[in-house]
Amino acid sequence: MTSSTLTFTSQFQSHTTEFLHLQPISLPEVVGTAQVKVKFLAAPVNVLDLVVLAGKYPVKPQTKYDQALVPGYEGVGVVIEVGGLVTALRIGEHVLPKDHGLGTWRTHTVVDADKLVRIPTPSNPVFASLLKMGYTPAYLLLQNMQYLKAGDWVIQNTATGMIAQAVIQFARLQGVRTVNIMRDRKDFDVVRSRLLALSADMVLSESQLEALVQVQPLSHTRRIVLAIDSVFGSSGSRIANQLVQGGTYVSLGFLGGGGEVKLDVNEGLLFYKAVEFKGFRTSRELAGWSQEERSDLWAWMLKLYNKGQLKAPEVEIMHWGSPAQAQDGEELEKKLLDVVEKTANRVVGMPKQIFVFEQ
Amino acid sequence: MTSSTLTFTSQFQSHTTEFLHLQPISLPEVVGTAQVKVKFLAAPVNVLDLVVLAGKYPVKPQTKYDQALVPGYEGVGVVIEVGGLVTALRIGEHVLPKDHGLGTWRTHTVVDADKLVRIPTPSNPVFASLLKMGYTPAYLLLQNMQYLKAGDWVIQNTATGMIAQAVIQFARLQGVRTVNIMRDRKDFDVVRSRLLALSADMVLSESQLEALVQVQPLSHTRRIVLAIDSVFGSSGSRIANQLVQGGTYVSLGFLGGGGEVKLDVNEGLLFYKAVEFKGFRTSRELAGWSQEERSDLWAWMLKLYNKGQLKAPEVEIMHWGSPAQAQDGEELEKKLLDVVEKTANRVVGMPKQIFVFEQ
């Protein structure tokens, strides 16, 4: 069976793909009794994947191929072979990884069935591939970090990010409003319109926010109870300072560089305003969830997508053919690594990068 | 009826008692039907009282006398007269204020019975006068801020403070161990012995802690799950950094000067170590508690005291006679204000200041 995987043999050295390699892999013809064979359909390149490659993410890759680790923590696949004792999955069913670490940057895998979660057949595999690490964190941020009532406000930075776009949409579903902050950029008005179309209530650049709050904190007229920070440092402090009494600040922690940038937390916030500061990690929030619970969550999200209540973000697709199809394996490798580099050196406003596999 | 009160007529200007005055007060001979007359027995001077005087505490004084506010949020009294419709309290019963703001720096008060909580007759009124703002915060810090199991550790600074001493004792009752940090001081060994005698497990000066953790974080060999910070700034950051994965940092917020000193919170703590940062306020934690629930809590603490399982801290008593007894009202005023000044300009290791009223 012809298949291929990206692997990495060592710690990814900040923003270089030197240790990433495309390898042809041969999968067993017959899977183990508790295993299934999965053909992947789409696998996104997430900032979190780069944190993993840099050896800085707490959950490590779970799969090795030929001594090398297989990267990619998110993706959607279809079951193409089923072991004799597997009852939970059937050929033709679609699946997402249950936990972080599965290794999705490959055309196929053979894996224990209990590492997968069944989802309904998605109308758009690219959307489905973003459920676990795009839409699920957004959902859990609004569910688990702070008690939110209709009419409450959430403030977030990196408003153009995948998770932020999903937060806007889930917030709308529960009557919660959003202030969305993004970096100053030339195409601000275009992006602002796009976010408003997603149902953002307020879209500001960092400098607009700064100017505005010098006149009056946003919280004077808005019940801002949750701040979602993907930046840290002064941007994070700025949104934390917009919270009302008893609000919660949450760090997504991906983008701040792991401990170098600092957040100023003062007594005004911590004691007088009673703001809580915490970090968010999807894997921790989902830790107690069964396969069935995850399956139900993702089926519901697919339903929302089909009804037009959730939208897929803008993506840039890189078609990952089989090495056999490619004229030159090295050329494919180069193209795949370019995609990873794009996310590593991400430019403001760059669309999400996704590997899409041959159907 | 001869009685007197301290009042303050304006915002207390940082560490001066210029706006504090002793006034003779005349109380009604007959109390309202829902009221009781209370004679105070002891009323401590807490750092929180000074924050109130400075206009910086969220809960403001609830009583005025002759247009001036009555300070003092903690104390124990005895009921000496009861209104016709009061059934919950009887003459001779002992009481504590239910909420902040009652005004205890006075010999007597007439107050609605529902502002008071009945306690059993205390064997030591000075200990009873410290229940609400010394022992109760300590108890709630260990109950409500982090799930604590036997064998867990708590780290705290300002180890010689009233609350810290109570934390040491309540921790021992639940099998929880304490690391206690205090400022470098000449009589370190003496104080260390005293804290060890209270059942502190580890007592270090700030500089000893700093030297120790440069070799190895305390959390490598101790499950430190809760950090209680009364200092903020570098001392607060130092104890926050001793927490294990999933720990909680709590700011008591009294001593850091209200927003000027800052705490460095980095992603290592917030995201990777999943430490939560929050402020603690007794009034917030007790907000939902009925009079009966508070009464039960304090009765239990008095029982622990009588059994020798809680100890009263070292205190310095200032006898507050009646103005009639005093040769010179001005002289008494000066003595009382000196006591307040002592707490305002508190020196490391100074014992707690308490007003004790004539029996």
From TrEMBL, chains A, B:
Gene3D superfamilies in alphabetical order: Medium-chain alcohol dehydrogenases, catalytic domain, NAD(P)-binding Rossmann-like Domain
Source organism, top-level taxon: Eukaryota
Residue ranges annotated for the Enoyl reductase (ER) domain, each copy included: 15-337
UniProt keyword annotations, A-Z: Fatty acid biosynthesis, Fatty acid metabolism, Lipid biosynthesis, Lipid metabolism, Mitochondrion, NADP, Oxidoreductase, Transit peptide
One of the GO BP terms on file: fatty acid biosynthetic process
A single Gene Ontology CC term: mitochondrion
Catalytic activity: a 2,3-saturated acyl-[ACP] + NADP(+) = a (2E)-enoyl-[ACP] + NADPH + H(+)
EC numbers for this chain: 1.3.1.104
The protein, known as: enoyl-[acyl-carrier-protein] reductase
